[in-house]
Amino acid sequence: MSTDYQQARTALGARLRELRVQRPGGKLTGPQLAARLGWPHSKIYKLEGGKQTATRDDLRALAAAVGNPEAFDELAARLAGFETHIQSWRRQLADGHRPVQERWNAEIDRVTVVHAWEEAVIPGMLQTTDYARHVLSRYADLHGSVHDVEDAVRARARRQEWLSERDHRFRVLIWEAALRSLICPPSVLAIQLDRLTAMIGMDTVDLGIIPFTASVKVAPANGFWVLDERLVIAEDWHAELWLDDADSITLYAKVWNTLRESAVYGADAHNVINNARRALTAR
Q: Are 200 and 269 in contact (CB under 8 A)?
């Protein structure tokens, strides 16, 4: 967990303790407050100690329980401030995958140029519906989330309409591992690779492939997207990072440009994809 995130969570916890101790009607102990809320008393100490992240409902209930409901707006603003940067999958997927895809769609609709790097899967903007179905199903199983895969697939497919706008540019780099990863049946991957081949030469898509045999200056890891040089979205197992500070954007742009030095384009990219396609046929 990032230091800035943990510091912000610890500061929120300290503020919660302050509201409990400096309560207008008199100090409450942690167990007393927990009893009012119907929570295990350990939750109070975890929240106040920065060991657990409160939800908006937690904050609303807690502010009311200490007799200071007007403090909710302040607490919610603090929560939003640090959760803007780290979007945990547990929270994002509470209502399923479709809302996550729709949030991405809304963000992409604001963008003209996207720089993307994917090391293990075909990027969502280029996925076939069958491939997307398998990827989203795997993640739903992993996180134990609502299995609204069909709705999520349709939402993700709508994002591809962005590619039809002539002023848009999708500059994407893919490691060869993504071409060979059987996160789906071979027949589905074969069709996905055919779709990828068809994207080469498309006006709005600059597709680069980094072959296994290429020399690289940085490790080909950690997929991320840079949106109009104003926002970076990077994915980890526990969360998505939404980073809008200048230093982070500069760093990720530098990583993308460094990876690009190892990529092949056009006919050479076509050959790498075809080799992966032929390997599927030979299975």
A: yes
Q: Six-digit token pair at 16?
A: 């919660």
Strand bridging mode 169-175 / 113-118 = parallel
Task: Count Cα atoms within 13 angstroms, Cβ side, for 82.
Answer: 21
Write the CB contacts of 152 (distance below 8 Å, at least 6 apart in sequence). Answer: 96, 97, 98, 100, 101, 132, 136
* Distance set, CA 30 to CA 41, 49, 66, 77, 213 (Å): 6, 12, 11, 23, 59
**pLDDT single digits (tens) 156-181:** 999 999 999 989 999 999 999 999 99
Angle, CA of 154, 149 and 239, to the nearest 5°: 105
pLDDT interval class at 80 (50, 70, 90): confident
* 1 confidence band (pLDDT: 50, 70, 90): very low
Handedness of CA 258, 178, 269, 201 (dihedral sign): negative
- Domains in the chain, CATH or no CATH each: 3-83 (1.10.260.40), 88-281 (3.30.870.10)
Of 119, 133, 240, the closest CA to residue 180 belongs to 119
Q: Around 206, how many Cα atoms within 13 Å sit in the side-chain half-sphere? A: 12
Total length of the chain: 283
Q: What are phi and psi of 72, to 5 degrees?
A: -60, -45
Q: pLDDT tens digits for 64-73?
A: 999 999 999 9
What's the N-to-C CA distance of the chain in angstroms?
Answer: 41
Place of tokens 């990876």: 259
Q: What is the pTM of this model?
A: 0.74
Q: What DSSP line would sit under 193-242, residue for residue?
A: HHHHHHHTT-TTEEEEEE-TTS--SS-S---EEEETTTEEEEE-SSEEEE
